[in-house]
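TASK: fixed-backbone design
INPUT:
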């Protein structure tokens, strides 16, 4: 469906063109959402930052989210997490919290996260199968009192989008295939985004 993340971001920016002039805060979910967030923030003349949320992957299938951990420490678990041993789940959550702290120190070492309070906020990710990570990001940000909260994804199944519509004021997703395996199958180029690239993309942020 997409050549790469840039094409997905350009299509999202077209859908979000009505926000130009409102100086939106674009919060990318790293790492895959970061290059898309840069494109969208530039197109909408907004600010770019990251919202740090880490998914808790299923045992034996780390790409399938059974929950997510937010930067504020909150944990959002899917129903499937109940099938996991508590000891394993506790370790997995603590590991994701450690990685979140590590990433914030690396991504924005000389400034604090941009405050979303009173801002039009667009949360960006390349895609989502279960919606767990995006849902955790939206729930965390809602507590920070944004003026408006928008979820923007390159691709997600219809049931995931329906779930996110309850948490966001607007959900934008150009592609919503009913048959959904993994996000990467909808991108011809779905290369890994490294931390150094995220730091570079954030370098233009205030």
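OUTPUT:
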């Amino acid at each position: 469906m997409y050549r790469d993340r840039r094409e997905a971001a350009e299509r999202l920016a077209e859908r979000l063109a009505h926000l130009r002039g409102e100086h939106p805060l674009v919060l990318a979910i790293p790492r895959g959402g970061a290059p898309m967030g840069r494109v969208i923030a530039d197109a909408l003349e907004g600010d770019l930052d990251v919202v740090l949320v880490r998914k808790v992957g299923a045992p034996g299938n780390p790409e399938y989210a059974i929950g997510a951990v937010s930067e504020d420490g909150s944990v959002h678990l899917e129903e499937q997490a109940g099938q996991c041993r508590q000891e394993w789940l506790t370790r997995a959550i603590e590991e994701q919290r450690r990685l979140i702290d590590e990433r914030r120190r690396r991504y924005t070492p000389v400034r604090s996260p941009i405050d979303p309070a009173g801002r039009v906020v667009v949360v960006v990710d390349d895609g989502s199968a279960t919606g767990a990570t995006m849902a955790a990001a939206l729930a965390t940000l809602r507590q920070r009192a944004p003026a408006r909260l928008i979820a923007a994804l390159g691709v997600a199944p219809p049931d995931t989008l329906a779930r996110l519509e309850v948490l966001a004021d607007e959900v934008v997703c150009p592609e919503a295939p009913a048959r959904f395996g993994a996000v990467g199958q909808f991108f011809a180029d779905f290369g890994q985004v490294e931390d150094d690239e995220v730091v570079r993309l954030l370098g233009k942020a205030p």
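COMMENT: Residues 13 and 43 are 6 Å apart (CA to CA).
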